[in-house]
Model the fold of this input.
Amino acid sequence: MLPIVVNEELVHRFNFYLHTSVKQGMRHQDELYALAQEFSQTARLTAYQKACELVEQGVPVVVTASSVGYAVWVSLRSLTQVPEKTTRQPKPTLSSLPSRLELCSA
Done:
């Protein structure tokens, strides 16, 4: 399965409070996502590779594209699910995401 890529103008961004800090979120097709990482316009391949890594771990991912860059978002539902007993790497938790996200200049 490949990550979904959508135009940033087609999603609704919002902020939410979790674990003593404000996180960025977005809604796309009635699903809620948390911002995992942002990338500059020149780092398109890096953003897509990061999204593919998360998809391989079983995490639902959306990549948004805008005139400024790319953002990788992970489903909030996947962050609250109990990991299955498999040989896969554990699914990320929201607290494992960077608390201060910066644009990558790669």
In short: The longest helix spans residues 44-56. Helices lie at 44-56, 76-80. The radius of gyration is 13 Å. Confidence is low (pLDDT under 50) at residues 82-88, 99-106.
